[in-house]
Specification:
The protein has 494 residues and is mainly alpha-helical. The protein has one domain: MFS general substrate transporter like domains (Growth Hormone, Chain: A). A two-stranded antiparallel ribbon has the order 1-2. The protein has a two-stranded antiparallel ribbon with strand order 3-4. Strands 5-6 form a two-stranded antiparallel ribbon. α12 packs parallel to α17. The chain is globular, with a radius of gyration of 22 Å. The chain starts with a strand and ends in a 35-residue tail after the last helix.
């Protein structure tokens, strides 16, 4: 067995290097999520020129993968329960590999949409299974940090996708220029995703299966072996853990979509909390930065090479912010980080709206006065810091842990699907909004960020340090968020 990082005995398990490595392997699903989402960034202008796309159709090409991701995230839980968490990761790897090759070899806009949609299904699988798997193998006291590894992988994927796009465009002399084998650089940007997709599949087959899945399938001996080898639990603790899991699994077997229904607004109130948390994460406009940033900066006067450089810097900023979140999430708590992030994003988004309102047209080219260009760049990166240190990682951690056992799987799938639909709505509407004026788009995102601040303050329970088997207490009998857990100080440490 690998040497333990923390040798303090704990009924919930020890933190070993092997556990961290397993969580990192699963988190590569987040890397693919980020890479697939951001690789489109460098291709937008070239794809628009190649297929002579109007703004609305261009927006759909960029965001169609998100519809596939919504379908994939909703069905991932069903797939994971039937064939296992690990095999679901392998399915995601295959879908993404096929999509990457198909997207690079397209002959028309509609087959590009089809391949992007297929890849989106794979992303939906990976985005749901990674946080669920990590939550199921992690001790409660570090679940937030291990769960945040998915987001660290995601932002790293965004960075490497943008960097790859920049390097390929530089080698070819432009994204629309021929690079290798008679294929334009933008096509190689899509094909590049085959490398991490294949690596993810290879690593996934080496991961141990989730003990909760094994117990669900009555493979008790295998579940005990995972608990011993991964969490270093002794026999007595293994037996107690399996009894706890068996008790919750018996509840989960009875789950139906109707279990999510209740109250005066169709779904249970706590389910609405998960849905709205997902929607607000997207309605602040973060993915506009990562899908359109290269085009955005060109639209206000920056050269293509400078726009790629700015996008790379923004992606690096996102990585640093996520590292900050990982170091704080299990110390500060989920709610304080979300409140800080929403406040920071609100201020920076409104500042970006003001800056873009100063743009002027010179010789049919939009430009920002030099001072306002600097303001827009700084505000954009402050916005990324605010999101990356809070709403990026924290929302996915919360979705993997906040729901009572009796509805967790279905509620997580529904919330993740809502996130993808919201992402699709924002990404599709940005080109038409930008045509009216960037100040309108970012002003709207600022309003949603302010609403997100109020939502967290009023509605979100704290989950820091709680066992997955005790999450039922977060909701009252009628499914409402329990106000007792709105303050991180009231949540038990373990």
């Amino acid at each position: 067995m690998s040497k333990s990082v923390s040798t303090v005995p704990d009924e919930d398990g020890q933190v070993s290097r092997r556990l961290v490595a397993i969580a990192a392997g699963a988190a590569l699903g987040g890397f693919l999520f980020g890479f697939d989402s951001a690789i489109i960034n460098g291709t937008v202008d070239a794809v628009r020129q190649e297929f002579a796309l109007a703004p609305t159709l261009l927006g759909f090409v960029v965001s169609c993968a998100l519809l596939g991701a919504g379908l994939g995230s909703w069905s991932a839980g069903i797939c994971a329960d039937r064939i296992g968490r690990v095999r679901t990761m392998v399915v995601a790897s295959v879908l993404l590999t096929v999509s990457a090759i198909g997207s690079g070899l397209v002959v028309g806009v509609w087959d590009l949409i089809a391949w992007r949609f297929l890849g989106g299904v794979g992303i939906g699988f990976a985005s749901v299974i990674a946080p669920a798997y990590i939550a199921e193998i992690s001790p409660a006291r570090i679940r937030g940090r291990l769960g945040s590894m998915q987001l660290l992988a995601l932002v790293t994927g965004i960075f490497l996708a943008i960097l790859t796009s920049a390097l390929l465009a530089d080698l070819a002399g432009g994204a629309a220029q021929t690079l290798w084998l008679g294929l334009d650089a933008w096509r190689w940007m899509f094909i590049a995703e085959t490398v991490p997709a294949i690596i993810y599949g290879i690593l996934a087959v080496r991961l141990p299966e989730s003990p909760r899945y094994l117990v669900n399938k009555d493979r008790i001996d295998e579940a005990g072996e995972v608990l011993r080898n991964v969490l270093a639990l002794v026999d007595g603790a293994v037996d107690r853990k399996i009894r706890e899991i068996r008790q919750t699994v018996n509840t989960e077997r009875k789950q139906r979509f109707s279990d999510l229904l209740g109250g005066k607004y169709f779904f249970l109130p706590l389910v609405w909390v998960g849905i709205l948390l997902s929607v607000f994460q997207q309605f602040v406009g973060i993915n506009v930065i990562f899908y359109y940033s290269t085009t955005l900066w060109q639209s206000v006067g920056f050269q293509e090479s400078d726009s790629f450089t700015i996008s790379v810097i923004t992606a690096v900023t996102n990585i640093v912010a996520t590292l900050i979140a990982i170091s704080l999430i299990d110390k500060v708590g989920r709610r304080p980080l979300l409140l800080f992030g929403a406040a920071t994003m609100t201020v920076s988004l409104f500042l970006m709206a003001v800056a873009f309102a100063q743009s002027t047209e010179v010789d049919n080219v939009m430009t920002l006065p030099s001072g306002w260009g600097a303001v827009a760049l700084i505000a954009a990166n402050v916005f990324v810091v605010g999101f990356g240190a809070s709403w990026g990682p924290v929302v996915w951690v919360l979705l993997g842990e906040m729901f009572p056992n009796r509805i967790r799987a279905l509620a997580l799938g529904l919330s993740a699907a809502a996130q993808w639909v919201a992402n699709f709505a924002v990404s599709t509407t940005f080109p038409p909004l930008a045509a009216l004026g960037l100040e309108y788009a970012y002003g709207l995102y600022g309003v949603f960020s302010l609403l997100a601040l109020v939502f967290v303050w009023k509605m979100l329970p704290e989950t820091k340090g709680r066992q997955l088997e005790s999450m039922d207490e977060l909701a009252t009998e009628d499914g409402r968020p329990n106000p007792k857990f709105h303050d991180s100080a009231t949540a038990p440490a373990n």
